[in-house]
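Lab notebook: predicted structure, single chain.

Context: the supervisor wants predicted structures on file for every construct in the current expression panel, including those that have not yet been purified. This is the next one on the list. No modifications to the sequence; it matches the entry in the shared construct table.
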Amino acid sequence: MQWTLVIPLKPLARAKSRLAAASGEGLRPGLALAFAQDTVAAAVACAAVRDVAVVTNDPLAGRELAALGARIVRDEPGGGLNAALAHGAALVRAQRPAAPLAALNADLPALRPAELARALGGAAPFPRAFMPDAAGIGTTLLCAGPGAELRPAFGARSRARHTASGAVELALDGVDSLRQDVDTGDDLRAALSLGVGPRTAAAAARLLISD
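Prediction complete. Output recorded below exactly as produced.
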């Protein structure tokens, strides 16, 4: 099964606000872009992924992520994360009604293509399935098979909301890179320990130098 991934990304000026305490305001937008670049690069390289649609209104991010092979979708609703995901999913399904869809966080800088492929394969038997984050509270991946609506419910305690909506939680070992999203300095250190992509590594090196 070949999946279309929908990745939402806030304007970089507002992205990753909780990371500012560790990075400072000056470096935070660049880190957010680096996270998204490494996430998209890994997604594009995944054998189970047909294509990647990034929903964003940020012109710099749009150019950089398009250069990596993503399709850029304007965030016309402008109504937050779940509205952006629903918009992206609707555009994909308008062109390919039976397309299997997955919503993926844009802040997975350690993501490995093989681990993403394993999770997508695990989701294939179910109408809807999801992967919880490393903290066990949120969600990093939400999948909807052919004919199933995505019904995203990301945000605080999304693990519980996706479970309540009927999505199956994927119980897989060895997919740490898919679960490690980055919101705080501690999250970034955890991602760095897993091994991040080259753009995040470069951005994080600048962060360390500034300290």
